[in-house]
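Input.
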Amino acid sequence: MSRRGKKITVTTVVKETPSPSGSDEINYRGEMKNGKKEGKGIYETKGDTYKGEFKNNKYDGIGKKFYVYGMFHQGEFKKGDLNGIVFSKEISYDVERSYDFEIFYEGEYKKGQMDGIGTLIGNGERYEGEFKKGKKHGIGIYYMRDGERYEGQFVDGRIEGKGIYYYKNGDRYEGHFDLNKKNGKGIMYKKNGKSYEVEFMNDEEI
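Output.
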């Protein structure tokens, strides 16, 4: 049978040594095509390691990127950025309590940032809802470490707009929020069944 006209792809396993120009690259072990990373491979830089798929010399496909202190991003990459469904672990710092804590995220990424629907968990708190450009933005549910809960609108990472605040004693407030606080008019529903109109300014009834 003739093989004329059939395209044959050749891949090569290589190891790159540190660049004499002083770049952060340490080495790459994996498949290549036409002198570029293409296919599956492991790419190590100072402090970071990526294991997964490449296309045209960039992270592209399914992969996992490891960082220092056990942090990682795992999921879909496109043209070098996280883009698709991602599971990640990062380390943050609580200024008030002076300690580090882990943050876990599972959900959508676009152009290297949380964007779309996802769940963010860390420091005794959990957020489930919409993100935009790395911040809570849209409709979501925020579970606080003290057992209370907010459901409603978020803008640029802040509680802002219309929402419902559930107190741990069974009461709830439905109304307006601004800059992470109850601000404006709403209705307070007491756990005993009573309700009344209320107005807040910076979380205080007026």
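The first strand starts at residue 14 and ends at 15.
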